[in-house]
Amino acid sequence: MSLEALPPLRDVLAEHGLLAKKAFGQHFLLDLNITRKIARLAGLAPGDRVIEVGPGPGGLTRALLEAGARVTAIEKDQRFRPLLEDLAQAAQPGALTLVFADALTADEAALLAGEPGHVVSNLPYNVGTPLLIKWLTGPWRPASMTLMFQKEVAQRIAAGVDASAYGRLAVIAQATCDAHSVMDVPARAFSPPPKVESAVVRLTPRPDRPSPARLDALQKLTAAAFGQRRKMLRASLKGLGGEPLIEAAGLDPQARAETVDVAGFLRLADAWLAARAR
Ligand code: SAM
Predict the structure, then answer these.
(1) What atom of ligand 1 comes closest to residue 190's alpha carbon?
(2) 87 with 26, same domain?
(3) Which residue, of 89, 95, 118, 189, is most buried by count of CB atoms within 10 Å of its CB?
């Protein structure tokens, strides 16, 4: 059987008697027009390697395979094994590799045998943010990420310094990547519909991505600064160097975290590293 000849996703779910499990954050995209649009937004070239977290019934997986990607799909729920094995049979030989594991602890570099890879996923909401942090700060760096989040999280990733959603996630995401929300997806597009709206975010790594030491400093400083976001930096960063550190970064000690842009936080990270090197 070829990909085109596969039955509709709803029929596949019914045939296997599969109902969504809340504990696994399961909200399925059964409309292939939407999954194809997400695959197009990922801008993949035929032969590109892709990590997909949570293929579930395989709607997005089908679209990625149609685009010619070589997909490594990591799924925690074993119930999807027979259905995904049928999909692997229908795809080009070797185009779909199935891994039944927790994506939070998966070793992507090993799974891709050192080849570069993109991440494309309709993420389970309960682990979406930790997975993003793993890919933004971990040793394995995706070539790009095209990820569905609940809309509120998408806003927190792409927010500019003036927006109310601006915070720690925006600073870490935008220091490492160019991050844009590229598609809104209404709750009714999912089965079952979640309580919230969703959006797809596209992240492409910046050529000037901070070194691991700089990123580590950035994580410490943003945790302290946004942990008390209404306080002035001189109070929230007291334990990390206080006024001398803030002034060394060319910032006003009376400023609040929410008014400091990404470049300002990077200068703080550099000042913190310089002070420790002394
Ligand atoms: N990709 C499918 C779609 O678009 O219809 C399903 C998306 S659903 C929002 C999230 C999927 O992630 C589910 O299949 C769920 O079982 C899986 N999942 C949840 N937690 C996971 C984890 N820690 N590691 C791997 N897969 C996980």
Answers:
(1) 5
(2) yes
(3) 118
Task: Give the domain extent around 245.
Answer: 212-277
Residue owning tokens 């094995």: 85
CATH of the domain at 238: 1.10.8.100
Ligand 1 midpoint to CA 81 (Å): 13
State pLDDT tens for residues 205-251. Answer: 999 999 999 999 999 999 999 999 889 999 999 999 999 999 999 99
What CATH number is associated with residue 70? 3.40.50.150
Q: What is the pLDDT of residues 107-117, one digit of tens each?
A: 999 999 999 99
For 54-63, give one letter per residue: b (16+ CB within 10 A) or e. Answer: bbbbbbbbbb
DSSP state of 228: T
Domain assignment of residue 85, yes or no: yes
Q: Which residues pair with 50 in a beta bridge?
A: 71, 118
Residue 1 lies in a domain: no
Domain count, the chain: 2
